[in-house]
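User: Please predict the structure of the protein below. I'd like the answer in structure-token form so I can feed it into my own downstream comparison script.

Assistant: Understood. Taking the following sequence of 457 residues as input:
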Amino acid sequence: MSSSPCTIREAIDVLSLQKLPSDDRPVDLLGAVASIVKSPPLQYAKSSSKVELWITDHSLSSGETACVVLWGSAELSRVEITRLEPGDVVRFNGVSLQKSLQQRQQQQGENITYYFTYSHKNEEPGMKWYAFNDRETSRIPDSMQTPAQRIQDLKEHYTREMGNGGRLSPLPCRFRHLNELQVSTGLMSNISIRVKQHELQQFTAVKTRRLTSSVTKSVVGFATVADSAKPDLTMTLVDTDNRFANDLREARDTNKVLMINNVFTRKQSEVLGDNSVVGEVVLVPSKNSIVNWEWKTDDLQQQQHHSMPSTLETESPGYKLQKSITSLACLVDIEISGKLLNASKCLESPTCFVQGMIITSEDQQEEIYRPVTLHLESSTSSSSTIPCPREVLASPAIIQTLCGGIDAKELTHDELLQKSVFDLVQAMLRDQVKLKWTIRMDCQPFAVEHVVLPSGG
């Protein structure tokens, strides 16, 4: 028989006391799944697919989140076969705590995310995890036996805290492209989209329970939306109460870029309450969602122009045209010669990354970083009421800063440095790390004057 699994807080406390690799003693953990993020295999790496199971329970404090990371195609296949969904209670046997990211977040004053992974010392045969749902076909192994009351308590906790518009998903909300959302349910994200189609449909949901059935009729808004930076990526947005019907129609008719924050990903059958609907992942605005139009270069310059007083007033201190702003924003993507880094081959390997980011100077004398366009997460600037631009020009000096300050020539000839810089830039793009930017607003296109990277942990 197995021992009783830890709560998330108990697991964190026990594993945090293990300071040395020799202290690695994994624990068993029980949690309710809140979000599922599936990542495809990386072409340059030996490792296979990755699945992040973001979990919750009553023991986590405000500002804390927890995630169990599963590696390998076999784990991804099992997640799909089991049809794991938000709300399922899962037991994980033999997990350890990854401490490096937690330490960095504490130093930066950010909300803390605890990442659990499987210990290399966990050599026990059998399942690593088991989902207590009606879709799990295998019997419960002896090592996974768990008190029924604890499972029931977790299910009730999830329903109370996560369901019916309750507390937000524990997975940190950040800007995401649609390719990150197409296969992941339970995510809360900020998105930037163009609306291709929009229509209202009367939807009839029939729910059958035993010998009784109920019919619910409602008018639902459906929009086909495309990623503003990657127009080939499309998803369906379901506006269940038609709050954003006017905005979606205007975006469709004008082809303007629409930004919506706090958007959930859900199975369509879950949203519409009809299991006969094909189970594609759809976008669903939450009760906290807000719609904004994306600021373009001309819009920002026009706002600056109209916000200026008369000619006589502009000669007075404090009324001159603002030349630069300072903003905290995340690096979302890097555009090289019209191609986005996330959609190019530059992320296939450190070598491909360096070849894309470094060119030879015109006099053929030295290697230099390529000037590129950076895509930033839209954010209110800290020194101005003007929003931070989403696209800014970055000089070779700025790119060198983003690459850890490593000289381009040195990077070209050092494979170890190439891997370190490659991992650094990938982490900034993947983890949406907030950087401090100083951006010139009196030129076109807008340009980065200075960027500050977070201090290392």
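That's the full token string. The radius of gyration is 25 Å.
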